[in-house]
Amino acid sequence: MTGNADHDALYIGGAYVAPRGKGWLEVVSPATEQVIGRAPAASVEDVDAAVAAARAAFDDGPWPRMPVAERAEVMLRVAQGIGKRREAIAQLITAEMGAPIAFSRVAQVSTALLEQYAAMADGLFAPEQRRQGAFGGLVVRREPVGVAGLIIPWNAPLGLLLGKLAPALLVGCTTVVKAAPQTPLDSYFLAEACDEAGLPPGVVNIVAADREVSERVVTHPGVDKISFTGSTAAGRRIMSLCGDQVKRVTLELGGKSANIICEDADLAAAIPLSLQGGMLNNGEACIALTRVLAPRSRYDEVVEALAAGAAMLPVGDPFDESTVIGPLVTEVARARVEGYIAAGRAAGARVVSGGGRPAALPTGWYVEPTVLADVDNSMTVAREEIFGPVLCVIPYDGVAEAVAIANDSPYGLCGAVWTSDVEKGVDIARSVRTGTFNVNGFSYDTTAPFGGFKQSGIGREWGAEGLDAYTESKTIMLPRPPVGEQGK
Questions:
Q1: Strand ranges of the sheet holding 204-208, from the earlier edge strand across to the other edge
Q2: Which CATH fold topology does 258-439 show?
Q3: pTM for the full model?
Q4: 125 to 68, 141, 170, 171, 224: CA distances (angstroms)
Q5: In angstroms, rounded to a whole number, what is the distance separating the alpha carbons of residues 278 and 306?
Q6: Catalytic residue numbers?
Q7: Phi/psi class of residue 384: alpha, beta or left (left: φ > 0; alpha: ψ in -120 to 50)?
Q8: How far is residue 377's CA from residue 133's CA, in Å, rounded to a whole number?
Q9: Can you give the residue ranges of every domain in the chain?
Q10: With a cut of 50, which residues of the chain have pLDDT below it?
Q11: Most buried in the list 65, 149, 263, 420, measured by CB within 10 Å?
């Protein structure tokens, strides 16, 4: 990406409006450490204006009252608008947060969720007439929850947003999108696509803000539901704030997922995908398989294979097509990851690959792909989400112990197992308390529900289940027929 992406307005009520506040968000490239653009930092007054626009669009506008099929058609036009900007968006997200461009093109810019939810329009929300009850008949219908506040992280700013926005739009909600301060620029492409698609004013409003102002989205009485993706620490705070108002909330939080390599595993297949699953998006992914559980009988073999594979991963300019590991999003993020590596060493873990900064890359917030061996599951590096390219290899004796170690975590978001016996792999998958689990692979599918157990979150996104977070069920009780009319 070249040039400077500056914006001086916020997208509120279907228009680009001057911010009420005076603050700015400067976006610094994690690869060059140079400013690449800026956008207004929303003030509390800006958030209030965005909520007011969304509230008016829900209470009095056409969107919730429009036939579902018509909303689906608009969503498909939004998808087309994003699609024709695909390369520009991929380039910009890579510039904002450092994801390798090859990854950005595939994973950061996808319209699949808009298309998948639009395809669910047929028959959605048809009232269900239930049989005559003791007190008369009844109708059960589903209605949109109202104004949804969508709080988006920086590591996949568009992809994770669409996982929230698509179901919200389909059911008739209006939205306030709160972009991350590290990645506010790509959201302007979404605003353009919404304008082109003819989305009614106020259905999508976009602001970017720091944490203090962002809390106004959560606490605003005009917001009916919050959907948040981010750290577990921030999720606890949001849940607390929502609790004060008994506000609906969906949380997709952190992970420390276990990757179980069985004694009968084919390492030639397991190791490359274990590295991919542990270090995708520079390791800045909640679903990353960062705890590798290796049988003690093959422990050294697994460690050596992971170390050799990690050492071969290309690290460098995220715009280079061959790069697999780019820079971390900020200097603070790099310092945090380096702190975890140091803590692992101090606790007795052994660095078998990486562990430092690439000598050939003095500029940019890079960390070498790192493999820590001799890790015990009680160590901090095995308990907490590092959010960088760091794998912890933990030994185990027997499948039962592997499952116990996998479950001995405050998190439960993802996981994987490698074995030549698929039936055994499925049994292990059933035993690990996590929202998504892979047998002999690493992938995710947006047509399936996604979310976590334990401190990895509350609720599910994607798939048909993702609609539930944006709807309320209403029961309409009908009068009993007059005496003499019953049974006719």
A1: 15-17, 10-12, 204-208, 174-179, 147-151, 225-229, 248-252, 457-458
A2: Aldehyde Dehydrogenase; Chain A, domain 2 (3.40.309)
A3: 0.95
A4: 8, 6, 11, 8, 20
A5: 11
A6: 252
A7: beta
A8: 55
A9: 5-253+456-474, 258-439
A10: 1-3, 488
A11: 149
